[in-house]
Input
Amino acid sequence: KAEEMAAAKPQLLLSSILDEADGDAGAMLVDEQQARQPTTDAGGERRSCGDARRYCVECDDQVAVIHCEECDDDYCKLCFFAQHRKGCRAKHTPLAIGDVPLEVIMAVSPAPDARPKQQEPQHGEGSSPANLKMDASSSSSTGSSSDSDEGNSHSSFHSMFSSSWYYGSSAKPKNRKVGPPPDCAKNKQSKEAETVLERAKYIPVRLSLKERKMLRLLEATLNANNYTDRVDITGFRSPMHRMHEQVKGICAVLSGLISAWDYKAGQALLHDRDFAKHATFFQDVFEIGRRHKIMNPEKMRTQYAKLVYLLQDSVSPQVQEALGFNLVKPIQTVHAYLTQCGAAALLSDDYIVTATNEVVPAKNKTRRDIQQEIKTKERCIDHISHKYASAKIDADQIKTCLYSICDNNSFLRSNRDPVDKVIEYLRALFKDETAQNSLSIYGGKDGARLTHTHERQYLYVLQSLTLWREIQHHMFKLWVLAEEDLLKPGNAYELRDTGQGLNRVQHSPQIYRVMHTILHTTQQRVGSWVGSSVIHLGDHNVPNAIMFIDKYTQIPRILNPVVLTLHQLEQLNETKLVHAYFEASFGDTEAITIAVLRDFFQHGFDGSGADNFYDAGSCIDGRLTSAWNWCNTLDNKPFFIVFLLAGFVGFDGEWK
Output
C-alpha cells in the first residue's frame, strides 16, 4: 500500500499544479455528446446527429461517406482524399458509413496509403511509446529510406518507434565478399586512428529519415512556444510559484508534441495526464534535437536555447518529482553505439582514416585524381562495413557511423580551416615589421585599450588564433560536455541580472577543465603568453555553458568572410573595371590583402572587449568580443567595397 501511495504522489502533485490555471483536463477534451449537437445545413435548416444523413466535417455541405478512425471525424469522399493526401494522415484508417462498401468508395479515387481497417492493436499499454524499446541489435541503418517505403509503413506508435526505422531494415548482412582496398589507403600513422577513436566518443550519429520528421515536429513546437518568456522573469511571489509555472510550461510542450504526433494519444494524455507513459517518446524527441544542433551549430539558433533551458528546469528535483520521469537521455554518439553493438574495433581499423576523410578538390588535383580518391574511399567504407558486420550490427549501420565521422571532418574543414588560413596569412605577411604591415597599437587611439609593439601584437594575435583553432577542433567534445554540465541533476543555476538582462548563471566544471587543458596546450605551442589567461565561465560575463559555446560558434562567421574575400581578389582583378578600381585605390591585390589583414589584426585584437582588463580586454573571451567589435565597424572601412564585390552580405548572412 505504501508503494502504491508513493507511485500516485507525482501524479497527484502534477494534477494539482495543472488544475491551478487550466482547470479540469476534461474541459480541454471535446465531449462526444457535445460534439454531436445539432448544426445548420447549407439551406439554413437545423439538422441533428440523429438524422440519417451525416454531413462532412470539412465542407459541412456534402453527406459524409467515410469515417476516419484516427481523426474521429466524418468526411465526404472529396474532403477525405484532400485532408489525407500526405504526411501522417495518409496512414489513417478509413471506415465506410452506410451500406456502401468501403472498397467501392475507395475504388474511384484512392487516397495515398488509405486502406480499410484491419485487425491491428489499438494504442494502449502495449503500443505506447513508454513500452516500446529501441533495440539496435536487431536493426540496421541507412538513413536514406525512400518516401515510398515510408508510405507503406503502419501509423501506430509501434511501427514508428521500432528499432528498424531508427537504424534501417532488420535484414541480415549479405554474405558478399569485398576485396581489401589498396595498401596505400592504410593509415600512415597509428596516431591518426587514435585521433578518430577519441573524436568518435563525441561525434553524434547522423539522423535517419524518420528522426528528421521528429526533428521538424520539435522545431515547430519550439517555434510556437514562449517558455523562457514566462519562466525567466522576476514577478513570482516565491520559488514555488515559479516551479509551478515551469511544470505548466513543460507539460504544455509535451502535450503539443504528443498531440501533433498522434491525435488519439494526445487526447488520452489530456484526459489522464500520465506523461510518464510516453517517457521514451519525449526522451527520443529531445535527444534528436540536441544531436542535430551539435552536428549543425548554425541550425536551431533560437529554438535550441528554449530546448536546453526547458530540459534544464526538468532535471530539478521538484519538477522531476512532479513529472515522474526524466526528459534527458545521453547523446547517441558513434563510439557509444558501436560499443553497444560490439563493433568498436572498427574505429582502429587500418583503413578508418581513408574511409572517413573528406575528398576535397585542389589546384594540383586532376579530375582523374579526385575520382580515384572517391573510389578508394568507397572501397574502404565497403571493406570496413562488411568486415565488422554481425548479427548485432549490419553493414548499413556501420556505414551510417562512418558517414557520421565524415560529417565531423566536413565540420572541421568549414570551421577550423579558416582559422588555419588566417594563421598562414599572419605568418607569411606580418612576421617581420615594415612600414606597410606594422601591427603596433596604442591605448586610447582608434578605440584600442591595449598598447602593444608590432612584435608583441603579432604574438598576441597568433596565440589568440591558435587558441580559436584548438577550440574549433574540440568543438563537438566541448558541446557534449557543456550539455552534461547544463543538464546535470543537482547543478542548480541562479537567475540574476548580469548587466545584459536576466540570465541563468551556472557553474560548468567539466567544460572549464577542458578549456584549461586547451589553453595550456596552446601556451606550450606558442611558447609564451601575452595578456590575461582568465577564462570567464559561470559569471556575469559568460553566465553558463550555452553562452560559452555560442560565443565560439561565431568564429567561423567572423573569419570565413575575410578568407573568402581575400581568396577571390585575383578573380575579381581579371575584370577590367574592377582592376582599374583596385589599382587607383590600393595599388594591387597584395596591397588589399595587407590592408584588410592589418586592420583586422590591429583593431580586431585591441582589447576593446569590455570596460576593464579583468572582465575582458585581453582575457580569453574578451579577444573574441574585440573581433565582433571590428565586424560591427566594417562598413566604415575603406576596403568595405572590396567585400561587397566579393559577394559579402553580412557576417550573419549568406554568401552570394
Summary: Strands lie at 39-40, 46-47, 66-68, 73-75, 94-96, 494-497, 502-505. The first strand starts at residue 39 and ends at 40. Residues 21-51, 108-176 have pLDDT under 50 and may be disordered.
